[in-house]
Design brief:
The chain is of the alpha/beta class. The protein has 2 domains: 3-217, Spore Coat Polysaccharide Biosynthesis Protein SpsA, Chain A; 219-375, 2-C-methyl-D-erythritol 2,4-cyclodiphosphate synthase (60s Ribosomal Protein L30, Chain: A, 2-Layer Sandwich). It has helices at residues 32-41, 61-65, 78-88, 107-117, 161-170, 178-184, 206-217, 258-271, 276-279, 293-305, 328-339, 357-360, and strands at 3-9, 26-27, 30-31, 48-53, 70-73, 94-99, 122-128, 133-136, 141-145, 151-153, 157-160, 190-193, 220-232, 236-239, 242-245, 249-250, 308-318, 346-351, 364-375. Strands 1, 4, 5, 6, 7, 10, 11 and 12 form an 8-stranded mixed beta sheet that branches. A 5-stranded mixed beta sheet has the order 16-13-19-17-18. Strands 2-3 form a two-stranded antiparallel sheet. The longest helix is centred in the last third of the chain and has 14 residues, at 258-271. Cytidine-5'-triphosphate (CTP) binds at residues 8-16, 21, 23, 52, 74-75, 77-78, 81, 99-101, 200, 202.
Length: 376
């Protein structure tokens, strides 16, 4: 399944006002469109991004092209912009058509549409209407309307590319969105779970709400870990999953991999979910001699379950001997494999304590680590 995100950003934002159209206005730390693009750039299933710009905004095209984003020119109305964008998609199977004006779209909403596209030609998020509905003329209520079976339409709206292209070719007149175009061509559209936070910035008031939502969504956590193991009889030590020949071993209930234990604790710390001893009590005989990757995998699994992605680990081993430097690359490789992240996001380094203290006297190895987790 190859997926293109088609972001329509060619409107003029007349209802929102401001010096520039709403997609170019600031929202927290970035412009509205930056947040929207980031939601798709960071989604693991999205392969390509096409952004549709108004011809007056053509000078802004280069900054997108340098990020590997394709640029198409907008049409007279939203449907026209979508048509031009579809033509720029190239040879892909599926397209997710999304309003640039919806910068708070979550990865859950995007994933919901992608999942539905595995079984259907068209899928889009809807949100059941919960408020009572009235008819009115702006000054008084002129009637009431049942909300039964009514849903607010959201984007991204996902389609098999060939299907939506044919539907747009056959369509005449204005359309609120692509679901309307698809339905006019007789295509069944599966409804996926929408999200109240996936608002479309329409008026100036919406900026404040979107800012609050984005601030709430940004959950970045740092955890630290510290561990010590004493030297004892043996002919090797295991550090960050790598066996290093040494004239002593490390004493511990498990394989005594002080590096991996510390990183594991750093992840638990970021999650505020206790420590390694709590999850794997040393009093429990089943963990005797256990390989430490079991503990590390548990911590990463817990992070995933709680909706976090591990983005970085930094681990410092403190000892006089053995020398860690020659093994650091292999340690990073092994840990990256277990953590399921790129090796460039795993740091292993070492220091001596200048012959001071217990590590200086060669009584054991200490380790400290930091883990960074981001809510996804
Ligand atoms: N859009 C577009 N091309 C158009 C009109 C709209 O690409 N000719 C895009 C907008 O940039 C927006 C999305 O379609 O991301 C939804 O449209 P809307 O919220 O109506 O935005 P605007 O048309 O920009 O706003 P307004 O209607 O207030 O002028
Ligand atoms: Mg509009």
């Amino acid at each position: 399944m190859t997926i293109t995100a088609l972001i329509v950003a060619a409107g003029r934002g007349t209802r929102a006002g401001g010096d520039v159209p709403k997609q170019w206005q600031m929202l927290g730390a970035g412009r509205v469109i930056d947040h929207t693009l980031s939601a798709f750039q960071t989604h693991p299933d999205v392969d390509q991004i096409v952004v549709v710009l108004h011809p007056e905004d053509v000078t802004r095209a280069d900054m997108f092209r340098t990020q590997g984003i394709k640029v198409a020119m907008g049409g007279a109305d939203r449907a026209g912009s979508v048509r031009n964008g579809l033509d720029a998609c190239g040879d892909v199977e599926h397209v997710l058509i999304h309003d640039a004006a919806r910068p708070c779209v979550s990865s859950m909403v995007i994933s919901g549409v992608i999942m539905a596209l595995k079984k259907a030609h068209a899928a889009a998020p809807g949100l059941a209407v919960t408020d009572a509905l009235w008819q009115g003329d702006g000054s008084k209520v002129t009637g009431t309307q049942s909300r039964d079976g009514l849903f607010a339409a959201q984007t991204p709206q996902g389609f098999a590319l060939a299907t939506i292209r044919a539907a747009h070719d056959a369509y005449n007149g204005p359309a609120a969105d692509d679901v309307e175009v698809a339905r006019a061509a007789g295509i069944t559209v599966v409804m996926t779970q929408g999200d109240p936070d996936n608002l479309k910035i329409t008026t100036a008031d919406d900026f404040a709400r979107a800012t609050r939502i984005l601030e709430r969504q940004m959950d970045i956590r740092t955890g630290n870990g510290f561990d010590v193991h004493a030297f004892g009889p043996g002919d090797h030590v295991t550090l960050c999953g790598v066996n290093i020949p040494h004239d002593q071993g490390l004493v511990g209930h498990s394989d005594a991999d002080v590096g991996m234990h510390t990183v594991t604790d750093a992840i638990y710390g970021a999650l505020a979910m206790g420590d390694i001893g709590q999850h794997f009590p040393p009093s429990d005989p089943q963990w005797k001699g256990a390989e430490s990757h079991i503990f590390l995998r548990h911590a990463v699994g817990l992070a995933t379950k709680m909706g976090f992605t591990l983005t970085h680990v930094d681990c410092t081993l403190i000892c006089e001997h053995p020398k860690v430097g020659p093994h650091a690359v292999e340690m990073r490789q092994v840990m990256a494999g277990i953590l399921g992240i790129d090796m460039a996001r795993v740091s292993v380094k070492a220091t001596t304590s200048e012959r001071l203290g217990f590590t200086g006297r060669g009584e054991g190895i200490a380790c400290m680590a930091t883990a960074t987790l981001v809510k996804t």
